[in-house]
Amino acid sequence: MSGYKLTYKRFGERSILIEWPPEINENVLYDVLNYKESIVKSSIKSIIEVKSAYNSILINYINAIDNINDAFLILKALYKPSKSSKQKEAVLWRIPVCYDTKFAIDLEDLALSKKCSIDDIIQWHSNDIYTIYFIGFLPGFYYLGGLDKKLHHPRRSSPRLQIKKGAVGIGGNQTGVYPNVSPGGWNIIGNSPIHFFDVNLQEPCFAKQGDKIKFESVSLKEYNDIKTLVEAGVYHIKQEPIND
Amino acid sequence: MIEVVKPGFYSTIQDLGRIAYHDYGVPYSGAMDEQSAKIANALLGNNENNAVLEITMTGPTLKFIKTTAICITGADLSPKLNGNAVSLNKRYTIKPDDILSFGKLNYGFRAYLGVCGGFQTEKVMGSRSMYKNVTEQFITQKGELLPIKDLNTNAATSNASIKIDKTHFNTKSLPVYKGPEFDNLSKTQQKQLLNKTFTVSKDNNRMAYQLEDAIENNLKPIITSLVQPGTVQLPPSGKLIVLMSDGQTAGGYPRVLQLSDSARYSLAQKKTGDTFTFNMSE
């Protein structure tokens, strides 16, 4: 594989942005993560932070970059296109979601506009496996890829001022979980009792980029039981390595 | 301890922020005008990353419980110690029961109160900078006691002071770099961006400064990508958004400019109605 045609740009006095073609897919993701890892591992002293999104990497330097072309050359030498079509040591996380109407305030409307049953939506949403592209925007907000086209649905015309922590929503072609109480315009179809962001942990987010998520439908009773365990700090999210 | 008798309009504890948690979606936070925060710490002989109190527009009233030394930098909010005016950018020794209060805003928008050894509030992910859902508290509150260190009696007692260049506060020209999508703009749009005088709108806070004066925009949204403090976004309305210290980590609006660090610190000293132009530094 010859790799992607990447562009390198200065992004302010202390940063460089590397961009892939404007696509969202797993091949780009694995190439991004692979390159990111080799930049981190290179331990270039002047680099303080390397982070990534769908099709980009941002590198922050301690000081203003004097010679931008030299910095580009050093980075370019580290690019080895990913041969793998999967992420090393990726994990599949099984995330409990309660789709009960107690939480799922937009589920009925969504079913009506999709001309299907509520159960259809729950089944479509919890059948698929989603890829974590990156965490951003809010602390612990996972950008997930892989939402079934049947479930694509526009954001609400006016956002709600307060969405509950753990709310599971659909906005456009994306699905995701609100890690904390926040305003938001997505259609809410359920709630997950687990913490997506926990400041008390060394790693505040349980999953990493390239991992996968499957939502598992639980009853209100199971939801409450899990919530009790989560609050007590003894709930372990079901996880398994991805081998295929 | 320092007792918060009145919290003022928006007072928060800030250091230089959280580095290396952006990948979890956690903003950097940290002092909006890092330069002024660093000066306060330098005059006190503190570490530059020691936590200071960031004071916005209207100052708090604070009662000191123990002996310490303080230094106020940044905006001039007419600080008073026990009712008597005190200077900015100067170290003062403080006795128990001293009262620090503030008055009229003369210039700038954010003042910084440094204390000897720095504020000792909760440290989360390597930083004491207050931020919702990360620190327990995201703003200082009336009646709260802010922990500080005991004054090291061996510390120099000289009342150091320096003169500050006012350009930092009243500059009308902010140095910028091209943003990643700058070259997608037409020549006319680029000209508009670099020649127009922009006004700070009333929507300005630690997350972002929205500007009045729309510029033409026909750019498509981008695939959600990385942004940082100082990134200037061009949303469909054409009204520019400049991300600041508590800004989100990712966004889908075209990023047309990137402020230099010093330009961002100067912008943090501007308030609703203030005007400026962008000045390309490449």
Question: What's the short story on this structure?
Answer:
The complex is a heterodimer of chains A (244) and B (282). Helices cover 23% and strands 29% of the residues of chain A. Chain A has helices at residues 26-41, 68-76, 107-114, 118-127, 220-231; strands at residues 7-10, 15-19, 47-52, 56-61, 91-97, 129-135, 142-145, 160-163, 167-171, 174-177, 182-184, 187-191, 212-217, 238-241.
Provide an overview of this structure.
Chain A: GO terms for molecular function: 5-oxoprolinase (ATP-hydrolyzing) activity. The complex is a heterodimer of chains A (244) and B (282). With 244 residues, chain A is α+β, with helices and mostly antiparallel strands. Chain A folds into 2 domains: 7-76, Gyrase A, domain 2, CATH 3.30.1360; 91-241, Cyclophilin (Beta Barrel). Chain A contains 5 helices and 14 strands. Chain B has 4 helices and 20 strands. Chain B folds into 2 domains: 2-166, no CATH class; 171-280, Beta Barrel (Cyclophilin), CATH 2.40.100.
Architecture blueprint of SSEs:
The complex is a heterodimer of chains A (244) and B (282).
Chain A: E1 7-10, E2 15-19, H1 26-41, E3 47-52, E4 56-61, H2 68-76, E5 91-97, H3 107-114, H4 118-127, E6 129-135, E7 142-145, E8 160-163, E9 167-171, E10 174-177, E11 182-184, E12 187-191, E13 212-217, H5 220-231, E14 238-241
Parallel strand pairs in A: 5-13
Antiparallel strand pairs in A: 1-2, 2-4, 3-4, 5-14, 6-7, 6-13, 8-11, 9-10, 9-12
Chain B: E1 2-6, E2 10-14, H1 34-44, E3 52-56, E4 61-64, E5 68-76, E6 80-81, E7 84-85, E8 91-94, E9 99-101, E10 107-115, E11 145-146, H2 167-170, E12 173-178, H3 187-195, E13 198-204, E14 208-211, E15 225-226, E16 231-233, E17 241-243, E18 250-251, E19 255-259, H4 261-267, E20 275-280
Parallel strand pairs in B: 12-20
Antiparallel strand pairs in B: 1-4, 1-11, 2-3, 3-10, 4-9, 5-8, 5-10, 6-7, 6-9, 12-19, 13-14, 13-20, 14-17, 15-18, 16-17, 16-19
